[in-house]
């Protein structure tokens, strides 16, 4: 089984204080730590597990600058056999649609039985690239995949719906699946493993290799154009309790007591 | 008259809230753009469910087909692409839910209609379709504009709009259209629903919940959290990452893919407050959040906040509460 996994290199922002940069269209990136997008991490792990069980190859693909190589190296260290990075200044400003177009231009020429990607990315959170790509490739798809079981020529997937409810679908292969976090437990990669992966080649391709013209990529090829970023206005703000941990604890305890909660 | 389409979302016989939330926003846009608000409902017996939609929309378009009994994105895509080609609505709204995430991007691609996903606001400003979305787990908002087109599509975040029936009710007209589906889908087949396993803990029944998130850092800290919850007589609940890591079972998960809770007290420990989680707990009576990041979105949904390392507050609070218990 040959598998292509689409990955993205994103900043970890869960615990970071974010600021808007001087263009007003991006966040201040200095000081942020980048890593493979959390959802893609699960997609990659799923691909490697399938390969280990059934044989075949795993190819990781991304769109981005040289910094993105560290995410591809991580993929190679985890068990991917090949890595492709698509890069071109013209790709700047691509939305989900233009991104899917760029990926499609390369993936359509790769042999693959399965395309895996994360349900969404932690930065723009569009949750759309995979599904658009499936339409462009003309293969069936499922999103929010929580369990994936391969049979001959088909896959049985569990999709997460709402309130704990799941559905089971049977889907013909080749297909694209956008996976949810928690589908597996991504393995730990040692520094040694990453070092070893340094020797593997990352194939770098540009606009000319995609066969697309400028009109199909970047802002020109996008459905959406970002106008501005801003920190959301606070509609309701918590009343902040201040002081030493002991003082804060006293305030909370008294609050709970006054409300009859303890 | 051009239409604004709103896709009604229903599962196992029940129309989901997102439908009315979208209809409420669409009503406002329809008035401003002088378009006709049209609810679209697909299903095996969609007619039975159309009635409440007529209170919101001027038209309710019904497609009934045995093959639409359970939602699958490819059957819905076929029907909706036919309807959109025929009616050419200015805008089509679909929920950013397990329905819309699976359906909208593919449908928009087929029709080559600009799509904006997970929108929390939208408007036509000087003829330009403008949307507000969130990035970085809700820490940043973004305004984006769509490229000029005849027709647009957006998926709408749950609970972004408060549903409100128009006064007087729209008293919409019900229109039935034949289903364009000719055969069963060949590539994707719905097999069955799987319900969460019975038993386990019912966090929806608890008066007090301690919700833990990514900030817990390590599984080794779990006993401390359990101990703390026990001290205040609360049940332990969590956000998604804790379930993904396998530290708690999914019956403890609060949020859009887990449970919706409304306890008297919800203490959020190390939870940043991504909307998926907030959706499940924002209606709790009293919310106290402890998080290191002063800009964590959870503070916008909490009554009280503490910007501090939770591992400093939790032991201190546990001691204080034990002291108060002894005083009694």
Please give a structural write-up.
The complex is a heterodimer of chains A (262) and B (328). Chain A has 262 residues and is an alpha/beta fold. Chain A has a single domain (2-221), classed as 3-Layer(aba) Sandwich (Rossmann fold). Chain A is 28% helix and 27% strand. Chain A has helices at 38-54, 69-78, 96-107, 129-137, 191-197, 207-210, 245-258, and strands at residues 2-6, 9-11, 34-36, 57-63, 82-86, 114-118, 141-150, 154-160, 166-172, 175-179, 202-205, 224-230, 239-240. A 9-stranded mixed beta sheet of chain A has the order 9-8-7-10-6-1-4-5-11, with helices on both faces. In chain A, strands 2-3 form a two-stranded antiparallel sheet. In chain A, a hairpin with a 3-residue loop joins strand 7 (141-150) and strand 8 (154-160). In chain A, helix 2 packs across helix 5 and helix 3 (96-107) packs across helix 4. The termini of chain A are far apart. The model of chain A has no long low-confidence stretch (mean pLDDT 95). Chain B folds into 2 domains: 3-177, HUPs (Rossmann fold, 3-Layer(aba) Sandwich); 203-327, TPP-binding domain (Rossmann fold). Chain B is built from 8 helices and 17 strands. Chain B has helices at 17-33, 47-54, 73-87, 100-111, 222-231, 240-244, 275-281, 310-327; strands at residues 3-7, 10-11, 14-15, 36-43, 59-64, 91-95, 115-125, 128-135, 140-146, 152-156, 173-177, 188-194, 208-212, 235-238, 265-269, 286-291, 304-307. In chain B, the strands form 3 sheets. In chain B, strands 9-8-7-10-6-1-4-5-11 form a 9-stranded mixed beta sheet, sandwiched between helices. In chain B, strand 13 (208-212), helix 5 (222-231) and strand 14 form a beta-alpha-beta unit. Chain B is elongated, with a radius of gyration of 23 Å. The N and C termini of chain B lie far apart (71 Å). At the A-B interface, helix 3, helix 4, strand 7, strand 8 and strand 9 of A face helix 4, strand 7, strand 8, strand 9 and strand 12 of B. Strand 13 of chain A pairs parallel with strand 17 (304-307) of chain B.
């Amino acid at each position: 089984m040959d598998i292509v996994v689409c990955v993205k290199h994103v900043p970890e922002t869960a615990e970071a204080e974010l600021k808007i940069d001087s263009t007003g269209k991006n966040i201040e990136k200095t000081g942020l730590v980048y890593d493979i997008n959390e959802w893609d991490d699960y997609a990659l792990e799923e691909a490697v597990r399938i390969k280990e069980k059934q044989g075949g190859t795993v190819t990781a693909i991304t769109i981005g600058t040289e910094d993105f190589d560290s995410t591809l190296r991580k993929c190679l260290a985890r068990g991917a056999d090949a890595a492709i990075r698509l890069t071109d200044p013209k790709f700047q400003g691509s939305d989900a649609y233009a991104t899917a177009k760029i990926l499609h231009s390369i993936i359509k020429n790769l042999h693959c039985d399965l395309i895996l990607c994360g349900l969404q990315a932690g930065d723009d959170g569009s949750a759309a690239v995979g599904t658009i790509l499936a339409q462009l490739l003309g293969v069936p798809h499922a999103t929010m995949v929580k369990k994936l079981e391969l049979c001959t020529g088909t896959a049985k997937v569990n999709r997460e719906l709402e309130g704990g409810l799941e559905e089971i679908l049977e889907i013909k292969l080749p297909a694209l699946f956008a996976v949810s976090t928690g589908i597996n437990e991504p393995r730990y990669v040692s520094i040694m493993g990453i070092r070893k992966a340094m020797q593997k080649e990352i194939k770098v391709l540009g606009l000319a290799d995609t066969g697309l013209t400028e009109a199909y990529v970047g802002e020109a090829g996008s459905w959406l154009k970002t106008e501005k970023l801003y920190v959301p206005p606070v509609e309701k703000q918590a009343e902040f309790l201040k002081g030493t941990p002991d003082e804060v604890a006293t305030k909370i305890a008294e609050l709970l007591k006054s409300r009859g909660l303890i | 008259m051009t239409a604004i389409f709103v896709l009604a979302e229903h599962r196992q016989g029940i129309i989901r809230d997102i439908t009315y939330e979208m209809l409420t926003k669409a009503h406002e846009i329809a008035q401003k753009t002088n378009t006709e608000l049209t609810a679209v409902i697909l299903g095996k017996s969609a007619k039975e469910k159309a009635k409440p939609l007529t209170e919101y929309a001027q038209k309710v378009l019904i497609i009934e087909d045995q093959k639409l009994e359970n939602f699958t994105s490819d059957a819905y895509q076929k029907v909706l692409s036919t309807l959109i080609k025929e009616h050419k609505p200015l805008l089509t709204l679909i929920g950013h839910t397990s329905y819309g995430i699976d359906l909208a991007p593919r449908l928009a691609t087929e029709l080559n209609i600009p799509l904006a996903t997970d929108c929390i606001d939208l408007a036509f400003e000087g003829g330009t379709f403008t949307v507000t979305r969130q990035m970085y787990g809700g820490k940043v908002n973004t305004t984006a504009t769509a490229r000029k087109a005849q027709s647009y599509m957006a998926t709408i975040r749950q609970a972004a709009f408060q549903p409100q029936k128009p006064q007087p009710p729209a008293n919409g007209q019900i229109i039935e259209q034949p289903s364009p589906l000719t055969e069963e889908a060949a590539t994707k087949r719905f097999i069955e629903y799987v319900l969460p396993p019975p038993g386990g803990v019912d966090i929806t029944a608890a008066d007090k919940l301690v919700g833990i998130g990514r900030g817990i850092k390590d599984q080794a800290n779990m006993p401390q959290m359990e101990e703390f919850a026990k001290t205040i007589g609360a049940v332990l609940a969590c956000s998604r990452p804790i379930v993904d890591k396998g530290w708690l079972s999914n019956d403890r998960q609060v949020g859009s893919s887990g449970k919706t809770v409304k306890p008297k007290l919800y203490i959020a420990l190390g939870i940043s407050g991504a909307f998926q989680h907030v959706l499940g707990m924002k209606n709790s009576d009293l919310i106290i959040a402890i998080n290191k990041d002063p800009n964590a979105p959870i503070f916008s949904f909490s009554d009280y906040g503490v910007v501090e390392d939770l591992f400093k507050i939790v032991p201190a609070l546990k001691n204080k509460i034990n002291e108060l218990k002894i005083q009694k």
